[in-house]
Predict the 3D structure of the following.
Amino acid sequence: MSIVTKLLAACKGEEAKYIVRSLEGKLRIGNAERTVLVALAHAAVLAEQERCKRQIYMTYLLLLNDRVQPERSGAQRN
């Protein structure tokens, strides 16, 4: 199940929808539906964590850039 979770977490756009459809077609066992739902929930959480990490990193870079820019522009004027 961790393979499915990682696969779904790495999906972009509508890729996850097609992977889930493929799994649903191949896993017609009673617990398969529950397994896919659990994997989707894990993927959603992992994807959100990655988005948050990227957002924090991008904010850090912007703040760092804002701190560095005034010093550079002041140095260029001299």
Remarks:
- The mean pLDDT is 77.
- Residues 2-77 form one domain.
- The CA atoms of residues 26 and 32 lie 9 Å apart.
